[in-house]
Amino acid sequence: QVQLVESGGGLVQAGGSLRLACAASGRTFSINAMAWYRQAPGKDREFVARIFWNPGITYYADSVKGRFTISRDNAKNTAYLQMNSLKPEDTAVYYCALQPTAWGSYDYWGQGTQVTVSS
To answer: Is 96 in contact with 35 (CB distance < 8 Å)?
Structure first.
């Protein structure tokens, strides 16, 4: 079993920055990719960013491209989401997810961390 623990959420003014972290732990597991999703009140969960663990290829939703950066620390099994130039519409609960193998799905999810951007 894999556990994902997110941290780094909070309240920030528009134009500010936050850095989220997602640490994966468990007895034995592999990581093909990790991703960040978010869910705003009354809306469906949406994709934000993805990183393939090796060699670190990244993908972003158009809404965050150029403002958010996903990265990883292989040694710590941790993914990060650096969020700059935050907008009120970025307000949501942010979830990280882990895909163990290339042929599988995102089987493991974190508990979510709240990000609130005030105008």
So the answer is: yes
